[in-house]
Design a protein that fits this description.
The chain is α/β, with parallel strands linked by helices and 194 residues long. It folds into two domains: 110 residues, Metal-dependent hydrolases (TIM Barrel), CATH 3.20.20; 62 residues, no CATH class. 34% of the residues lie in helices and 13% in strands. The chain contains six helices and seven strands. The strands form two sheets. A five-stranded parallel beta sheet has the order 1-2-3-4-7. A two-stranded antiparallel ribbon has the order 5-6. The chain binds zinc ion (2 copies). The site of one zinc ion (ZN) has 6 residues, from loops.
Length: 194
């Protein structure tokens, strides 16, 4: 039997969502979901400072409180809805060890892997699409998507076609990468969120 679930959610900590974890869990209950995963954005470990990417990821100092609160909610909602502790973590070449350490030292039920940073600029930063060569950006984006899967760090790809939001269809490129190298583990093309 199919299980109704949502494993990709954010809250006030990352700065591009609002509300508390409980708000989302209550909404999931209202929708009749059987499982709900909290998966806020992991801190930006590859930049200095406590909160180097406000509006994008949680501050480094928020991580412990996030995990603690989610674990408490797993217990509080037991018997009503299955709450899972997840995290959305960046894949950034050269910083894999920082993210691996975080994933290994917290009791996450799953990890969403995301490529947000391409040539050092966020994929959702709209002005880049006016100035950069889009073909180059796409190719690098998908190279990193494939590398993120091969890293073995993640259970799920959060938004493997995220750059679709910026206008150009790219399913052909993704399919090429998937069928050549990743027949089983690619996410569903066209499904995305930040
Ligand atoms: Zn994301
Ligand atoms: Zn997200």
């Amino acid at each position: 039997m199919a299980i109704r679930f949502d494993y990709h959610s954010h809250n006030w900590r990352c700065g591009h969502a609002a509300g508390e974890l409980t708000d989302y869990i209550e909404a999931a209950k209202l929708l009749g979901l059987e499982e709900f995963g909290v998966s806020d954005h992991a801190p930006t470990f590859f930049k200095d400072g406590d909160d180097p990417a406000p509006g994008t990821t949680m501050a480094k100092s928020e991580l412990a409180g996030y995990v603690e609160e989610a674990l408490a909610l797993k217990e509080r909602y037991a018997g009503q809805i299955t709450v899972k502790l997840g995290i959305e973590a960046d894949f950034v070449e050269g910083s894999e060890d920082d993210y691996r350490r975080m994933l290994d030292t917290h009791p996450f039920d799953y990890a969403l892997g995301s490529v947000h940073w391409v040539f050092g600029v966020n994929i959702f930063h709209r002005p880049r699409w006016e100035t950069d060569d889009p073909e180059q950006t796409y190719r690098e984006y998908y190279r990193l998507i494939v590398a993120s899967v091969r890293s073995g760090m993640f259970d799920i790809l959060a938004h493997p076609t995220a750059e679709n939001r910026m206008g150009r269809p790219s399913v052909r490129l993704l399919r090429t990468n998937c069928t050549r190298r990743l027949p089983k583990r690619c996410g569903r093309p066209g499904w995305w969120s930040r």
